[in-house]
Every structure is written in C-alpha cells, then in structure tokens.
Amino acid sequence: MTHRVTLVPGDGIGPEVTRAAQLVAEATGVPLEWETVEAGERAIAAKGTPLPPEVLDSIRKNRLALKGPITTPIGGGFRSVNVALRQELDLYASVRPARAIAGEGTRYPETDLVVVREATEGLYSGVEHWVDRDHSAAETVNVVTRKASDRIVRFAFELARREGRRKVTAVHKANIMKTTGGLFQTAFREIAGQYPDIASEERLIDNMCMQLVKKPSEYDVIVTTNLFGDILSDLCAGLAGGLGIAPGGLYGTSTAVFEPVHGSAPKYAGLDKANPVAEILSLELLLRHIGEAEAAERVFRAVWETVAEKKVVTYDLALPGYTDRPVPPSSCSAMAREIARKVPQIDLEKPRPPYAPPTPS
Ligand code: NAD
C-alpha cells in the first residue's frame, strides 16, 4: 500500500535535510508518495502568509507529514507556524526520543529515554495580559484540563507498552502549583493504576533536572505538561548528543507530523553542511507510526553504523571541539548517501556495533 505523505521542506537547512530523508526513504523500498507544500519564508514571499491553507489541507487529507524546520520571524505580525500547526491540527502529544547514537557527542552513551509533552495547553495556551494600564505587571494563565491531562498520560503509558519500556515518570510541580499541578498529578495517579505492567513514579521538575544530568539511565518515559516538556526535551536532546541527532513526532488523534528538534540554522543554509540525522530519524519515527517497523529499524541501524564507523559524518560529529575522535568532515548529502547505501545491507539479526570509547590523550 502506498502512503501519501505531506512534505514541508521548510526554511534554512530544511530543504537539504528533508532531501536527505527522502533519499533514505527511497532506500527502504517502502512506497511513499510525497506531496510537497511550502510553508515559512517561501510561502510568505509567494502567498503573503507563512501557513497557506493548502498546507493544512494537505496534512488533514494525508494525516501524515514530514517537516523541515521553519524560521519564525522575530517581531512582525506572523504567529509561529509550528504553534499554529499544533493548534489547528490538535497535535496534542509532542514525543521526543533522546537516544545516544553510538556513544557520540555525549557523556552518557547509555541514554535512551522519551519525553512525552502535552502540546496544546498549560502555560502555552496563549492566554496572557497586562494587569495594569502602565504595563508594570503581567499575567500568563496556566490552563490545565483533566481531559488533556488524561489524554497525554494515557498516550505515554500506551507508548511505553508498545515500545516495551519499563517505567513512566510524571513530572510536575504540584507542591507549589496545587491546582494545575495537582490536577495533572491526580490524572497521572488514576491512569497509572490502569497499567499495572508498567512502573510509575513522580518527580518535581527541579529535582528531575538534577536527576537527569546525574543519571539519565534511571529514566525511561517522561510525561509532563507543556512548558516543563519543552525544557526537558531540549535537556534530554543535549544528554543524548545534541540537536544534530534529535528527532521528534507530533501526534493527534488521527494525524501525525514528524520533524527534527532543531531549527532552520540559517547560517548553514545552502552550504550542504548540516547534519541530516535528526530529519532522517524523524523519518524513522514516521515509518514506525505507519507500521513499517523493519524499515524503521533499518534506518536507525544505518544511522547508528554510519555514526559509529565515523568515515562519512558531518562537521558536528567530526571536528575537534564537537567530538573526542576528530575526522575530516563530510557534507550533508554525502552522509545521507552513506546512510541510504547502508539501509538495504543492514543485518537485523546482528547486534548493534558497540560505541567506541574515546582514546585517552
Ligand atoms: P537552530 O536549531 O536552528 O540552531 C541552533 C544551533 O545548532 C546553531 O548553531 C545551528 O547552526 C546548529 N544546528 C541546528 N541544526 C543543525 C544540524 N542539523 N546540523 C548541524 N548544526 C545544526 O536554532 P535557532 O538558531 O535558535 O533557530 C533558528 C530558526 O529556527 C529560528 O527562526 C527559530 O524560530 C526556528 N526554529 C524552528 C523550529 C521548527 O521549525 N520546529 C524549531 C526550533 C527553531
């Protein structure tokens, strides 16, 4: 069965990294038919809006999209395309796996966790105002509903079960924010009781940050509200090796959009220099979502082996200052070709090659 996928190349390095992901997709042999639509700066130039209606129409129709990063102009009248997409398509779960790849670029080569973030409400509801006329005080409303809390907690437990993960940790600040935090905590406790096969625990956000940088391997699935999730998912991307390798998925009830955690990195636009791995691993998440588990595993393993081999890797995995094992850097397209070349050759019976620890200098 052919899957139609909306492709949003995006801005900056977006067209380069999405092209890289398309090349790898082709190598899997999974029949994907791309429907390309423009959002962001090119859409502003052509249509006067960063999010023309055909983008939403295409994603609603196909219920599946692969997206590159989009530049959010600072100031000006345009709202963020990314926030608009989440709200318009009710993409309520933002899922960011933080997996160290072949031990590169991280002090924690064993990192393998997933942050599940509620993406529609909380402190990002957009309900804020000045309290007085001379703008000396302001208020942002933190909207937390039982419906959205139940939905995200259930999503996290279902993900844990599907992926064979052992534990879900809820992160909140219910000791101080007794209503909003307390509501989320109650939802978590009730739903956790329905999943006796999966361990559950709670952490306060401040303690969680400290625990994560001390011993990330203690954690597995983390579920939390919007603002805490935004911060924790970047923290975990850093633990796993940085923006170049961090993929993401946004899930609604019937629609899913996959995109890297990183932005459009304008300074590298058009230079064929950016790391394509985050976009390629976003493709891997897309393949898992449509039930192509073997193809997804091949993509992950091809990335892993390319990074472990370290012959054809981009600057952020190659140069001194970014890595303990410097090598000459390759281009974005060369690394994508190398990953695509490996995809059909992966032997899924064999274990992943171990990461190479740095040699002491
Ligand atoms: P950024 O992620 O674009 O860049 C941060 C740093 O990481 C830069 O040094 C950049 O060069 C580097 N980097 C990022 N991706 C890389 C890659 N694949 N390979 C190698 N290096 C990489 O963040 P920023 O500079 O804060 O944002 C730039 C623009 O992107 C802004 O307009 C921002 O609003 C937008 N943005 C979009 C998304 C999205 O579309 N989902 C997410 C984050 C930021």
Number of helices: 12
Order of helices and strands: EHEHHEHEEEEHEHEHEHEEHHHH
Radius of gyration: 20 Å
Q: What small molecules accompany the polymer chains?
A: nicotinamide-adenine-dinucleotide
| Average pLDDT level | 93
The percent range for strand residues is 15-25%
Distance between the termini: 53 Å
User: What is the overall silhouette?
Assistant: globular
Q: Which strand order does the major sheet show?
A: 2-1-3-12-11-4-5-10-8-9
Q: What level of helicity do the residues show? A: 25-40%
E-strand count: 12
Helices, strands, pairings?
Layout: E1 3-8, H1 14-28, E2 32-36, H2 41-47, H3 53-62, E3 64-67, H4 81-89, E4 93-99, E5 112-118, E6 128-130, E7 138-140, H5 146-162, E8 167-172, H6 180-192, E9 199-204, H7 205-214, E10 221-224, H8 226-240, E11 247-251, E12 256-260, H9 277-289, H10 293-309, H11 315-318, H12 332-342
Parallel strand pairs: 1-2, 1-3, 3-12, 5-10, 8-9, 8-10
Antiparallel strand pairs: 4-5, 4-11, 6-7, 11-12
Helix pairs in contact: 1-9, 1-12, 5-6, 7-8, 9-10, 10-12
The chain binds nicotinamide-adenine-dinucleotide.
